[in-house]
Design a protein that fits this description.
Layout: E1 3-8, H1 15-20, E2 25-28, H2 34-40, E3 48-53, E4 60-73, E5 97-112, H3 113-117, E6 136-139, H4 141-153
Parallel strand pairs: 1-3
Antiparallel strand pairs: 1-6, 2-5, 3-4, 4-5
The protein binds a DNA duplex (12 and 12 nucleotides) through loops.
Amino acid sequence: MKYWLLKTEPSTYSWNDLQQEATQTVKWEGVRNYQARNFIRTMKKGDLAFFYHSMAKPNIITGIVEVVREAYSDITASDPTHKYYDPKNNPGNPRWSAFDVQIKQNFKNSITRDLLKEIPQLTQMELLKKGSRLSIQPVTFQEWMVITKLPDLMK
DNA sequence: GCCAACGTTGGC
DNA sequence: GCCAACGTTGGC
């Protein structure tokens, strides 16, 4: 099993939006970056991911989601009316992939980016690297273990 | 194949 | 709102 971090701007799609979904599941569409797409294609059912709010005040990890459907063709790329439309997409050989995630755990206390930056074991984390823009990032087992323990410590 | 120009991301 | 860093595009 692998671990991930999924970035989203809450003004676009938030943790609260996900909680409102009938099945607490969402199609993760609109990724238009090759590196992120390649990660999507390695995802397996049961993989877990942190749900991260970027461009927010403050930036936080809100909880954990589980991959419930593995990579499939992102149809928004071939829909001219969709904001994620990609005119260069070839529907016969789709260039972009989507996947589905479902809420696994809601952190009673969100973990702020500021807190993550204070943890010595996380200095190498992709999210915290200068200039890091990847919207889908692998998280190491060690990082995962450190971070999942934080909500309890914050009580 | 190089690289300048451009548009976007995203922390601060 | 600023601006550094990044990925993509396109002329050459």
